[in-house]
Amino acid sequence: MRPWLILFVVAFGVRAGWAQDDFDRAPIEYSQTTPDNMVSRLQDRLIAGDVALQFEEPWGYLRSVLTALDVPESSQSLVFSKTSLQRHKISPRTPRALYFNDEVYMGYCRNGEVLEVSVADAKLGTVYYTMKQEPQDSPRFRRQTDNCLVCHAGGQARGVPGHLVRSMYVDKSGQPLLASGSFRIDHSSPLADRFGGWYVTGEHGDQKHLGNLTYRGRPDNDAERDPSGLNLTDLSSKFDCGAYLNGHSDLVALLVLSHQAGGHNLLTKTAFDVRSALHREEGLNRELKEPPGHRWDSTNTIMKNAAESLVKYFLYVNETSLTAAVKGNTGFATEFTNRGRRDPQGRSLRDFDLQTRMFKYPCSYLIETESFTALPDELLSLFWKRLGEVLAGSEEKEFAHLSTADRQAIREILVATHPGVPKDWMPAIGDKVSSK
């Protein structure tokens, strides 16, 4: 495997970065710790006989696992660059399909040997599994550590298990043209740099991207870009769409995936940083005969920086503006929005804008996930304090994209829907907090 996997990692550790040996030591102990996540819990139910998976030609266990993990088929995103475990199965004629919900990412290759699954784990960051794509009496997920971490926690990734949405120039066989460069993608990336090596369906006006095309090399200038890959709603001329659960690679799903993968990476990075800082501090206090809980300035700095980075990412600081309306061509946007918690006015952090920015209320829905709520208490306390300061009207330039109405709406939605909001954020007597 190469270090350019589509699902990868963003990490910037306490020092220059993490190494695999670091997160295999206390307090993370990645390889030795028993996972607790959506996939491991499904595995327990499989072993107990509470649920069964069905093998179905030609997709194997794909559809059954998607259903069991509550991953929508409409999230399908298709990538044709040879940049993952089963790269010999991937080409522009046989793209790899990715599916995701808030916690799980699943990779499917046509005629592949295994399903590839990665999942956000509250303690371990990202955990990787495979499932054999052959009929079995007792299908099981197999956790992968060394094999996947060769790429998913290598030097390019600075060592923390996670994900990456990557855009690159790809030739007609699906091989990345590495000499032409590539782009690591999140919500701050210009749309014009995104989705090289991916199929993209939907409408986006005169905005450009790199998807749906193969290349001989990187175009020298914008004028040389081939417009034939833009605003596609039908991929039937590219590959056999009937060989997949649907024939689309929804643009809105791709936008959400770009944000979410980066968000999960940051949650992992900050959790590892803070947990490790607290662990080192505990040992230092013992060695220097300081009382338990004595707080060192270095620990405070690490926690403050972690909270600040989360607040900025969750409030979409530096998000690339849309210059034309964006529309997908599947039910993804509706299904995604319907999963949201809603305040008494019917507002949700999952409500899309898709006119000038991704979401109507720019605070990440990842704040509702287990990956967020399981962060160390000390970090959560700093996060909520800093978020409250910004929403109260901080005039810092970095948050100038938030209007007064944005800040008020975000605060009201969080107060009404998030059980973790601090007491000084709580609504007046009579208002109710929804956990839907």
Structural key phrases:
436 residues, alpha+beta, 6-stranded antiparallel β-sheet, two-stranded antiparallel ribbon, 10 helices, 8 strands, 28% helix, globular, disordered C terminus
SSE order and pairing:
Elements: H1 20-23, H2 38-48, H3 62-68, E1 77-79, E2 96-100, E3 104-108, E4 114-121, E5 125-132, E6 142-144, H4 146-152, E7 165-168, E8 182-185, H5 251-287, H6 297-314, H7 332-338, H8 370-373, H9 377-391, H10 404-417
Antiparallel strand pairs: 1-2, 2-3, 3-4, 4-5, 5-6, 7-8
Give a written overview of the molecule.
The chain is of the alpha+beta class and 436 residues long. It has a domain at 266-425. 28% of the residues lie in helices and 9% in strands. It is built from ten helices and eight strands. The chain has helices at 20-23, 38-48, 62-68, 146-152, 251-287, 297-314, 332-338, 370-373, 377-391, 404-417, and strands at residues 77-79, 96-100, 104-108, 114-121, 125-132, 142-144, 165-168, 182-185. The strands form two sheets. A six-stranded antiparallel β-sheet has the order 1-2-3-4-5-6. It is globular and about 65 Å long. 45% of the residues are buried. Residues 1-16, 152-158 and 427-436 have low confidence and may be disordered.
Inertia-based shape? globular
Number of strands: 8
Whole-number radius of gyration?
22 Å
Kindly estimate the percentage of residues that lie in beta strands according to DSSP.
Answer: 5-15%
| Poorly predicted residue ranges | 1-16, 152-158, 427-436
Work out the helicity level. Answer: 25-40%
Q: Oligomeric form of this entry? A: single chain
What spatial order of strands do you see in the largest sheet? 1-2-3-4-5-6
Give the count of helical stretches. Answer: 10
User: How would a crystallographer describe the biggest sheet?
Assistant: 6 strands, antiparallel
Distance between the termini: 41 Å
Overall pLDDT level: 89
Q: Output the structural class.
A: alpha+beta
What string gives the helices and strands in order? HHHEEEEEEHEEHHHHHH
